[in-house]
Amino acid sequence: MADTPSAGRFSQEAWTRNLAAYETIRTMPFNAELADGSLSRERFRRYIVQDAHYLIGFGRALALAAAKAPHPDRIVQFARGAETAIVVERALHGGFFQEYGIDAGTFAATPLSPACDHYVAWLLASAYAEPYEVVLGALLPCFWIYAEVGRDIFSRAGSDNPYRAWIDTYAGEEFGEAVAAMIAATDEAAAGASPILRARMHAAYAHATRLEYGFWDGAYRDVSWPL
């Protein structure tokens, strides 16, 4: 794990407490098949459409974190993160959209899946209602788990893997730097938090980790609304 923080910090505690959940995510069918290139195009297509929807909500949550940040440097960090979520990562999705024949109308007409809707609604509710420290606890798993899954898949994926662009993005140095900055910001926030507030940060981190699993699992199993 390349971004291992110092022992005793919030991030190290959170990673250790949720290590079993991460291992389940790392080895779940979606990511196992993504790594060996056998993931079906239809499953990846479902995932990439929902991920593009998710990034809009994630960008809004980052913007709210910027508004709550106590220091100018953190305001800039989260504002830039919001821009990256909307512009840079959507450029990655745009390449896949073109490959899969997904136009703007198709994307707009595709509703959020139950997993995506739940994640976005919870994340935005947290960003609006919770204090800054808890918001960072909620945001951190999306950064960190994606980076670690990306690195793990990169280490075992072949050069001819059809999902190489996705793998290279999340295993890349630029994304790794964003993750390290997010870990640092979260540890900084936790350092001055009361035990009760720190516990709320842990609860938010754990729930976001569960939602990360649900997002990939929902795309794999094609979980949709019954009505």
Automatic annotation (TrEMBL):
Which top class of enzyme applies to this chain? hydrolase
Task: Kindly state which keywords UniProt assigns to this record, in alphabetical order.
Answer: Hydrolase
The record's annotation in Gene3D superfamilies points to: Heme oxygenase-like
Q: Where is the Thiaminase-2/PQQC domain?
A: 29-221
User: What GO MF terms are annotated?
Assistant: thiaminase activity
InterPro entries (UniProt xref): Haem_Oase-like_multi-hlx (IPR016084), Thiaminase-2/PQQC (IPR004305), Thiamine_Salvage_TenA (IPR050967)
| E.C. no | 3.5.99.2
Output the Gene Ontology cellular-component terms.
Answer: cytosol
Q: Which Pfam families match?
A: TENA_THI-4
Q: What is the designated name of this protein?
A: Thiaminase/transcriptional activator TenA
